[in-house]
Design brief:
single chain; six-stranded parallel sheet; about 40% helix
Amino acid sequence: MSIVAIFHSGEITINAYYLAVALKQQHIDVHFYFYTPRTAYKHNYLVCLLQKVKDEFSTFELKGSFFASFLTKPNRLFEIFGTQLHALIINPLLPGKTRKLFDASKYTSIITIGQGSLYWLYKTDPQAVNKAIHYSLEIQLTSDPYFITPQLGALINWESRLLKKAKGLIIQDVFRAEALLNCKLENSHLKFFFLPVALLGKTIRRNEDYLYHELKIPREKKILLYFGALYSERYIKEVTETFDKSVNDNWVLVLHGPNDFSSLIPDTNKINASHNLLDYEDLYKIICSATIGLALYDNRWPNTRFTAFSSEKIARYLQAGVPFIAFKNESYTKLKGEFNCCALIIDISDLNDAIEEIMENYDVFRENCFKAYDKHYNISNSILPLSEFVRNNPNFALV
């Protein structure tokens, strides 16, 4: 049996879990190597997810300490010396501890999830990077605004350098790959595996009444759903104002998210806020209550521009057969061209036209959602090129 090691630095992600389960379904054994920072796992959901991984897979967990967190805390030294402070980018004690547990020759391949994990593997065993398949969940560039700390900037630079040594790259689509690598795919030596952010499980064809019941919405109304984190960069103010003025009274806009955004919502009966957070396993009840979904990401930056195949929100809409509205760009145009499951707009002012486009052929849009999910967003299907490569590529044979 092929055996894969997964290096995961930081709190476990649902994407990592789904990846491991899908590989296991293809009869590939998975061993997890976790680095858990000292302050991680404050949320019960993540604690339960980590325990689930430990119950289902072989795991090796290395934990942080106060001393390590003090050393790696972003500070003025990184601004002065940058990537020269190699040892402080991650816990400097971590590579030595890992070498006592990890033997690269045992594994058919090594999957690193995120920049920190790739760098951790490199510091543990530089030669092991040559058999790594790197999994990029976020395209982070040092030119991006706002959130690039000196420490993260150093990791981003190392990711770029180490990808020149790695065997493969798992990423959501060609647009994100070319943005990350800053080159055309044919100019890279990497083997590419396009794995959209996906879910486990089949399509959900039943409707739910959760939002109708929770918010006391009349059943004859149709629901336009905004689902996810709510902040100004997601055009909340523009959407609510346009909806209130342009969309007829047969519709209700529901904004469901964890934070308070009441100041952005007009005082109208057409718009409802939902703060009641469900367990992860029950989120489908919210999605399946909607008629149409919204997926409005900032088009200015690669990580938010190319999201048609990298957003769990999109996967959930399609699994539930909920057509959605997004900003037009290369990523969404590709999805719409293959499966006409969404309406694309240039500006928020086009919102009502997009609603009408979907409703004129709603049943067709809904069926196209299910088809798109089955091909791209059900990880049990989309994992097949990666699992076949891991099993059959002679360069990854056990030593």
